[in-house]
Amino acid sequence: MNLSTSQANHHSFILTGIPGMPDKNPWMAFPLGFLYTLTVLGNGTILAVIKVDQSLHEPMYYFLSLLALTDVSLSMSTLPTMLSIFWFNAPEISFDACITQMFFIHGFGVVESGVLVSMAFDRFVAIRDPLRYTSILTHGVIGKIGIAVLTRAFCVVFPVPFLIKRLPFCHSNVLSHSYCLHQDAMRLACVSTLVNSLYGLIIVILTLGLDALIILFSYVLILKMVLSIASRAERLKALNTCLSHICAVLLFYVPLIGVTMIHRFGKHLPPVVHTLMANVYLLLPPVLNPIVYSVRTKQIRRRIIHVFQGRINRA
């Protein structure tokens, strides 16, 4: 394959499967297919249960529905190139398709962070003012929060394709991952990428970084309120309602921090480590979030068990 160094011939990128081990790519096809299947089935089950069960039509579960939809959307953003590499051995992607995928991956990443902030606010209201919980977080308020989260993601990611498109690419067109990322593509440019780097850093600080601080501050306030509750049983009950969200936050931010640290300070590490961490960041939360909520949330767990028992009895 001709990896041309001339800008005139640079109309596509070459995606990387397992760095240094292209012969191992077919072995990853079925595990990846299994993970994507789990993502769709798990999040689809959560959405179906919340839709069918009227008792789950509460603010907490509406926000959980937003999280499930975001997880599926994020996974579907990486699915086309993952399948083309590991199933069909077709690593080439056009420049415009790469930019489109880049927009959706970064966009849904920002959306997920915003949804996690919304869920932290939901838990704060539920514990601070449980009697007015549903009257504060009405359908209209939840809808406005959802629109605000989507609008913010669109506005901050919208300039990224234009920032990439203005760059001349005259180096190798081989990317480091199985999908297109802004920071991965801009390193192949043959001019200064200071504007791209600064914009990317500002966006990370003002979205993901700020969201993490808001979530942390929310839980400081929640913990303060919980400790003021006289009954030990009530304190444990209040904290238990937050555990699933805490797990979702850790599943999203811990891999994100790991990817960022490796990208900034782990240039000496083997390429396979960078690829592994990037895949964990994008693939792990959508798979594990529905499992966490199914196990930790009694109402959802009971409904799922009820559905399966009904099918077994009918059989």
List the strand order in the largest sheet. 1-2
Query: What top-tier CATH class fits best?
Result: Mainly Alpha
Whole-number tally of structural domains: 1
CATH topology: Rhopdopsin 7-helix transmembrane proteins
End-to-end distance: 55 Å
> Rg to the nearest angstrom?
22 Å
Low-confidence stretches: 1-9
Largest sheet: 2 strands, antiparallel
Structural class: mainly alpha
Query: Helices and strands, in N-to-C order?
Result: EHHEHHHHHHHHH
Number of helices: 11
Shape field: globular
> Beta fraction of the residues?
under 5%
The proportion of residues forming helix, as a percent range, comes to over 70%
Overall mean confidence score, pLDDT: 86
CATH architecture: Up-down Bundle
What is the number of strand segments? 2
Overview of this protein structure:
This is Olfactory receptor. Pfam families: 7tm_4. It is found in: Cell membrane; Membrane. GO terms for molecular function: G protein-coupled receptor activity; olfactory receptor activity. The chain crosses the membrane at residues 27-50, 62-87, 99-121, 141-164, 198-222, 243-266, 272-293. The protein is mainly α. The chain has one domain (7-314): Rhodopsin 7-helix transmembrane proteins (Rhopdopsin 7-helix transmembrane proteins, Up-down Bundle). It is built from 11 helices and 2 strands. The protein has a two-stranded antiparallel ribbon. α2 (59-86) packs antiparallel against α3 (95-128). The longest helix has 34 residues, at 95-128. The N and C termini lie far apart (55 Å). The relative contact order is 0.14. Mean pLDDT is 86; it is low at 1-9.
